[in-house]
């Protein structure tokens, strides 16, 4: 009985210690380096896709990297990828680590980031408790007084609409609603209100904006987002076997991001029909690179649309290529990894033609800027069959 009580008592001490750091119950030691660190977590509006989330990551990574220069001890926990709306083949899957898609060492070379499972593995205590969960909300009128100003104020009536990436062992002590607009670095003002907090989380991390968009720091962060090596290798193998290219900057094929699904339904004014696509591609290739016959198509379209596009392009002399994963590749890379392979192959093409205002397209354009392609080969878009066709905006790299 006494022994039992003693254990209970010890348990309490160590559970308590967890509020201030991490202790291993087996060895009864606390990890004091870990103990000193503080962690920021964030989550994104559930329906947002992978590629907008990559930009949200950059905002937080830059915020933390800037702060680190002032000897700030905060680290950023990478929020796992969980049940993304577009990832249809994994509706029931478990949370996916960032290492599946990215080169973590490279991310760490830019910002103090850590995977959630690394944090989990530091503790024997089965709960990760967040001291404060800030639920960010938009102001009802962003242009109050006719001007978009940086501001925040406490709000009311909010809920966390995420799922902690499917983990039922993440809890929080307090939830705080905050109306927020403007630069992300203003989040430090909120964090500073509770200096003893060690785990702080922001829901709706997409609301705060980049402090500075398109600067050298922005691009340094973007360059550090290197993909997982297996994904790069698979893409390169495909390029060499099917597209006749072993270089970084290929000359042997043209690539297209043909965004369908929700874009084809709700953005009719921006995307062409199948026939319109064929006509535009043919005109584009004849004008810019008439000797190329290989066309690589990245798309989220349905098989029936893709076979039609393929046969129409073939009938006028093109060789059409899609990256079709094997069952084991899909199982291993997941929908997210397959989409990245599509993006990598698009990035290395002689010319790229994208979909207007798709973040999937934006990320390919950035990759091509990093690879050093001439901007005329990159900032091209598919136009609607009729009506006006605005030029895509050009975001040039700053080295
Ligand atoms: N494999 C593959 N998947 C794609 C392709 N285009 C879109 N997808 C999937 O659909 C998702 C698109 O969502 P986002 O990443 O948000 O990009 P977006 O919807 O084009 O852009 P926004 O809605 O403006 O944010 C991707 O993450 C992929 O999962 C493609 O060409 N190939
Ligand atoms: C929470 O649960 C997950 C999955 O069951 C586990 O891997 C992780 O280590 C747990 N976290 C903690 C803090 O125990
Ligand atoms: Mg989207």
From TrEMBL:
BP terms from Gene Ontology: fucose metabolic process
Pathway it works in: Protein modification; protein glycosylation
InterPro entries with a match to the protein in the record: GDP-Fuc_O-FucTrfase, OFUT2-like
Compartment(s) where it occurs, according to its Swiss-Prot or TrEMBL record: Endoplasmic reticulum
Record's keyword annotation contains Isomerase: no
Pfam families for the chain: O-FucT
Signal peptide: 1-17
Keywords from the UniProt entry: Carbohydrate metabolism, Endoplasmic reticulum, Fucose metabolism, Signal, Transferase
A single GO cellular-component term on record: endoplasmic reticulum
Catalytic activity: L-threonyl-[protein] + GDP-beta-L-fucose = 3-O-(alpha-L-fucosyl)-L-threonyl-[protein] + GDP + H(+); L-seryl-[protein] + GDP-beta-L-fucose = 3-O-(alpha-L-fucosyl)-L-seryl-[protein] + GDP + H(+)
Keyword Signal in annotation: yes
CDD domains the UniProt entry points to: O-FucT-2
Protein name: GDP-fucose protein O-fucosyltransferase 2
EC numbers: 2.4.1.221
Superkingdom classification of source: Eukaryota
GO terms assigned for molecular function: peptide-O-fucosyltransferase activity
Family, similarity comment: Belongs to the glycosyltransferase 68 family.
